[in-house]
Amino acid sequence: MNTRSVAAQGRGQARRAANSTAVEAGARAGFGARGIIYVLVGALALQIAFSGGGGQQADRGGAIAEISEKPFGQIALWLLGIGLVGMALWRLSEALFGQAGPDGDKPSKRAMAAGRFVFYGFAAYSVLSFAAGESGSGGGSSDQQSQDITAKVLGWPGGQWIVGIGGIAIACAGIWIAVRAIMRKYHKHLKMTEMSQKVRRALDISGVFGGTARGAVFATAGGFAVAAAVQHDPGQSKGMDDTLRSFTETPVGPWLLVVIAIGLVAFGVFSWFNARYRKV
Fold first, then answer.
1. Which Pfam families match (predicted)?
2. Bridge-partner residues for 190, per DSSP?
């Protein structure tokens, strides 16, 4: 057997492993875990809108802290972290072998999958670190982390440009997320034929509303990063918590945050639909 055939056989085995039942189960668990986090973040944001929220954080750290305070919270955190590991591994398989669908092998889609692998890998690490007792990891403030990173980058040569371009990229990503949600691009990734009419209606309500709200949060956070670059002030950079709180400073007061918070809960529900109907 020559080297080329051995390599081809190896790639075939790796692809089969990427398409295995275990990877599919990991992906579905990951969507379930993502849904839990977004539902909790939305609920925390609602508390902030109606009562100021006190010292609670409306971000992943706040959601993790909220879970840890419940009965069997530590067990739930371990399960949540393992679910996110499953999501990260599924995204890695997409980056290496392509996504499901006719255009799944496109380099752009593989690159996006690689970026999502890094994101979910970090999210899984932060949750599991918190579950293991390192409270400074998963439960840390997204606002402080954002400002620390911004301050460090601003100190680099050309740091203002880097932060500014990064902020524009995040803002554009937010707009892209919202537009794709409004256009219901997610349909092509789901097993629509297996859904009843009621399920489709619920899917579209949660997908359009939730995706638009999520996109608005990303776009706003990107705008703050651009402001930090222009003013050379890392304090202008905001994580998810401060970004959500900024919606209360609009002319409509806390009601915009209420809408965004409900949208984030809707995106969590949409993630659960993905856990059931996603083509993996």
1. DUF1206
2. 278
